[in-house]
Amino acid sequence: MTTASDNSSSRRALTCRADKVHTVTLVLPGGREAVFRAGSSKSIYDIASYAGVHLPASCRMGTCTSCVCKLLAGHVKQPQQSCLPPPLLKQGYVAICCATPTSDVTLLTHQGAAVRKWKAEQPAKGK
Ligand code: FES
């Protein structure tokens, strides 16, 4: 059985004291929303997992696009991702396995297929 105080303790355990904590809203398939608080010590993906929100992921190091979401509002930091070229970053795509919020954020989940489609449509380099 989970009590309100259990939830509060769990949330505290997910962030370090020096963290600035932000509200993360994930818009899931079907329009459902998952809302939780996240600092900068864990990725948005990890915090979502701890909160019981199961999202697609594979590499968990920013290389595969499985976890990619689209930023609808706010700002994130994702210095270690390498799967999103500048045009996709400019469109707001975020590899949440290696991203942390720098403000309150709203993200549309399950965007990996859209990113892979965009990549497949790009002309091959060197042709
Ligand atoms: S799980 Fe591979 S980029 Fe996030």
TrEMBL record:
The lineage of its organism: Eukaryota, Viridiplantae, Chlorophyta, core chlorophytes, Chlorophyceae. Keywords: 2Fe-2S, Electron transport, Iron, Iron-sulfur, Metal-binding, Transport. Belongs to the 2Fe2S plant-type ferredoxin family. GO terms for molecular function: 2 iron, 2 sulfur cluster binding; metal ion binding. It comes from the Eukaryota. InterPro entries: 2Fe-2S_ferredoxin-like_sf (IPR036010), 2Fe-2S_ferredoxin-type (IPR001041), 2Fe2S_fd_BS (IPR006058), Beta-grasp_dom_sf (IPR012675). Residues 22-113 form the 2Fe-2S ferredoxin-type domain. It holds the Pfam family Fer2. This is 2Fe-2S ferredoxin-type domain-containing protein. Its cofactor is [2Fe-2S] cluster. Transmembrane segments: none annotated.
